[in-house]
Design a protein that fits this description.
about 180 residues; alpha/beta; 6 helices
């Protein structure tokens, strides 16, 4: 059975992932409660290279800091006990699952945004290629201009070679 002890707050390290779960409104509620009835539940810490690492009790720790307390009551767990505790705590497991879902959603959103950007870039490139491949509208390629062009026969077909053009001119009375 572990015995609660008092530890200096400034010797307790809070892992970055745990810090991200901090909710100021909860810290304020706990601080108000601590002012009235004191700290009822010890936090959990484990030793690690000359410091203590917080396992459980972030909001209680932050409430004590906010109240200006130099020390906090904690249970000191061994590394093995801490490992078992973090893997058996349903609250921590739920938080891990939530963070994993959020990470997956963020990665999916980033992938979708990247795909959309690549798709837009490809569409713009395709449009530019098609625009360059399309011939400019000239009288020769403009279907509306064909009927008014001089030198055409009754068929309205455009000559494709110089020889065809000469033959067409000869049929129309030899105007060159």
């Amino acid at each position: 059975m572990l015995k609660p002890e008092s530890f200096p707050i400034d010797k307790i390290y809070v892992p970055v992932k745990r810090r991200k779960t901090l909710r100021p409104e909860v810290v304020q509620e706990i601080a108000e409660s601590m002012l009235e009835i004191g700290q009822q539940t010890p936090i959990l810490v484990r030793p690690d290279e000359g410091r203590l690492v917080l396992i459980e009790g972030l909001h209680r720790l932050e409430a004590c800091k906010a109240l200006g307390e130099p020390a906090i009551i904690a249970l000191l767990l061994s590394a093995e006990e801490a490992h078992q505790k973090t893997h058996s705590d349903p609250g921590l497991e739920a938080e891990r699952e939530k963070m994993e879902r959020l990470r997956k959603l963020r990665l999916e959103r980033e992938a979708a945004e990247k795909l959309a950007i690549e798709s837009r870039a490809a569409s713009q490139t395709d449009a530019a290629v098609l625009q360059r491949a399309q011939p400019k509208n000239t009288n020769r390629n403009d279907p509306g201009a064909r009927s008014s062009q001089a030198g055409r026969g009754a068929s309205g077909s455009a000559p494709t070679t110089l020889s065809d053009w000469i033959k067409q001119q000869e049929r129309n009375g030899g105007r060159y």
